[in-house]
Amino acid sequence: MDEINSHPRNPFRRPDWRWGRATLLGESTRAGRDDDAWVRRARRLQKALARFAGVPDHPRVVRADPAALGAYRTHLGDARRRWEVEARSLAGQDDAAIAARIGVLPEVIEAYEAMFYNVRSRLGCSDWVTAFLFGPRVYEGLAPGDIEPIWKVFAYQLGPLVLDVLVDLPQDFAVGESTSDRSERTTSGTVHWLGMAVAAMTLRVDVGSAPKVIQLSALIEEFESVAKSRVASVAFAALKFQDETLSERSTSVEKKSPTRIDLVEADTDVDDLLPTLYAPLRFTKSITDVRLPLRGTG
Question: What is the pLDDT of residue 97?
């Protein structure tokens, strides 16, 4: 890692910038004023590892910084375990919640996030998350076996409960297997829904399939428009009935503020009325509008 990608003031720095920064400082260079406590802890751990031939189980290495050493072991350990830690950070879970799922101390998760996956302060920067954490596979086209980006996309978009379902699937359960195979192996509606969503994300768009994908996108837009208009009509009628009932009971009371029906007519977004109905629809539409058109046609 070079000086630019590991500089703390670089808005495009990599998630493991602190570990890379500590490596650049090496044995001789003094830490600067921009190097925080975590850079210094990473540097001390690297020095201890170098002193004892990179053996993480050496007693003096363990005593140097147990939390940082635990984060280092997670970084080099089982890939699925590491992906889960990172996906849960993207889902917004705190150190204690992640540690309980992984089976380590919260201090280890804190150290891992600080040294190897420093993302929490930028979860609101969706472009940065997509470019630097999901990677180019999201745009080029995911395959059913791309477990890491699939976990991370669903964790970031839909949160820890959906991630729980994905992570808890048996390892021999193919994430992208056909719906007919899935229906024979499970009766879980949640798993079936997730399977359909993953199938949409891993759909390969080429010359043959592109016209059908365009038709699907148009159909989703039409469905969304109809659904919003129907929900708006139902909500409008319900609020109007409620206001008319209240006005009959208080005809002698002068209105000093706009009624709820006035507010609905003036500036209320339909999405604010029934957000739970639109969350899955918006997510499905984002897959079609953003990810599918950006994939290659080869």
Answer: 96
Nearest to 18, CA basis, from 68, 85, 60, 83 = 68
The CA-CA-CA angle for residues 189, 192, 198, to 5°, reads 140
**CA-to-CA distance for 61 and 48, rounded, in angstroms?**
6
Instruction: Please name which of 199, 212, 197, 207 lies closest in space to residue 285, comparing C-alpha atoms.
Output: 197
Q: DSSP letter at 293?
A: G
State how far the Cα of 165 lies from the Cα of 210, in Å rounded to an integer.
Answer: 31
* CA distance linking residue 232 with residue 243, whole number of Å: 16
Please give the average pLDDT of every successive group of 10 residues along the chain, which has 298 residues. 78 90 76 82 90 81 89 94 96 95 96 96 90 82 80 91 84 50 50 68 74 78 74 64 59 44 40 42 46 37
Here the contacts of 36-42 (C-beta below 8 Å, separation 24 or greater) are: 36/8, 38/111, 38/114, 38/115, 39/8, 41/65, 41/68, 41/111, 41/115, 42/18, 42/68, 42/115
108: nearest Cα among 72, 139, 55, 132: 72
Is-contact 142 298, C-beta < 8 A?
Answer: no
CA proximity to 66, closest of 96, 110, 21, 19: 110
Residue located via tokens 């009509």: 233
pLDDT value of residue 6: 77
